[in-house]
């Protein structure tokens, strides 16, 4: 079953198309990756899904509902969350306050507490730093917090925007391990990345975007063996 269906969308800035005729399927329970260099249109695709830069043409369906023209808050309410590029934690708030902010749609305090404890089992370091201001944490710790904050809404689809950006190799490896674990626990993942090797190692299937168009697609192994993908990303 497809959780997210993107049908032939065009998204433009200042009347210039950035995405052209892009179609993508995200199957429930899988990790689907979007690969591409800087400027390929990956971030614009995320913005279109989240309603931040709506598509001019085409359709975006989530759980069978046409969300193409929904405002962002309604899209989030449908069950989509995003771990943004550069983490963007609330630096003057504590770890626990950041986590609570991620559950702003949840009214039951017991549910919020259960989810807070769950994410701390995924990231024990956050349990040690519950009262620490997020802005005083390392980049890797902030990445953990950004992921945990997104999980607090218990999303059906979790979008990761360049999760390896700016992190040490050790934290990159740890983050990809956690992304895989989150998926194994039942959350569908859309992983948007430039780190091709590690992304294809955990993804089920994926798409390659270049200059706003899908230029290759298939399961992860097919993409890893694709001659054009190898030439472009593996040297």
What's the shape? globular
Main sheet: which strands, in order across?
6-7-8-3-9-10
Profile the largest sheet: 6 strands, mixed
Q: Give the name of the CATH superfamily of the domain at 1-78 and 192-235.
A: P-loop containing nucleotide triphosphate hydrolases
CATH architectural category of the domain at 1-78 and 192-235: 3-Layer(aba) Sandwich
Q: What is the mean pLDDT?
A: 90
Describe the structure.
- With 235 residues, the protein is an alpha/beta fold.
- The chain has a domain at 1-78 and 192-235: Rossmann fold (3-Layer(aba) Sandwich).
- The protein is built from ten helices and ten strands.
- The chain has helices at residues 42-49, 72-78, 95-102, 109-122, 124-128, 139-151, 169-184, 196-202, 220-225, 227-234, and strands spanning 2-13, 16-27, 31-35, 57-62, 65-66, 80-83, 157-161, 188-193, 205-210, 213-219.
- It has a six-stranded mixed beta sheet, sandwiched between helices. The protein has a four-stranded antiparallel beta sheet with strand order 2-1-4-5, with helices on one face.
- It is globular and about 45 Å long.
